[in-house]
Amino acid sequence: MIKIIGCIVILIASSGFGYIAGSRFKYRVKEIRLLMVSLQMLETEMTYTSTPLPQAFESVYLKSSTPISYIFKKVSQSLKNHNFSTVGEAFEKALLDCKDIMALSTEDIDILKSFGHTLGSSDIDGQIKSFKMVLKQLETQEAKAEEDRSKNEKMYKNLGFLTGIAVSVLLL
């Protein structure tokens, strides 16, 4: 009786781990899409309404969804407090602070870091080109993330369940 209860607990736990591991792929796709929308809002704030950067980042923070909004909040706070000499440094620090709560890959974060260093360093036409470039790169990353999700999400869920069955069989 105790072995059967133990096997059921192992099966539930391993299935849960599989679902958690598989959900990371789904969240990455969602976060890239949220990031693209947030960057489009930032582009509007900067290029069309000429909002100063700290207020532009704060406005995007207030309109964005978590966990992406935390990036914009941290950049806004850093710029208001004059913690960094450039926007790129503030943006990079915010990305590093937030990377553990996001499902973005290292490649996604590297794209954002390089984009952050272009912010506030050119005229409006240069900024528009930077936004178009980063959005194009993120579209590519979104396609890759969607492909990874379709390949790996189901595999991790099944792997968790099958691992639980294998351990249960070994215990019986």
List the helices and strands and how they pair.
Elements lengths: L1 H47 L4 H11 L4 H13 L6 H12 L7 H11 L7 H48 L1
Polypeptide structure, described:
The protein is mostly helical and 172 residues long. The protein has one domain (30-152). The chain is 83% helix and 0% strand. The chain contains six helices and no strands. It has helices spanning 2-48, 53-63, 68-80, 87-98, 106-116, 124-171. Helix 3 (68-80) packs across helix 4 (87-98) and helix 5 packs antiparallel against helix 6. The longest helix has 48 residues, at 124-171. The protein is elongated, with a radius of gyration of 21 Å. The mean pLDDT is 88.
Keywords, please?
83% helix; mainly alpha; 172 residues
Quick description:
The chain is mainly α and 172 residues long.
Determine the structural class based on helices, strands and strand pairing: mainly alpha
Rounded to an integer in angstroms, the radius of gyration calculated over CA atoms is 21 Å
Q: Helix proportion of residues, in percent? A: over 70%
**Content of β-strand:** under 5%
H/E series: HHHHHH
Number of helices: 6
* Overall number of domains: 1
Q: Compute the number of strand runs.
A: 0
**Contiguous runs where pLDDT drops below 50 for at least 5 residues:** none
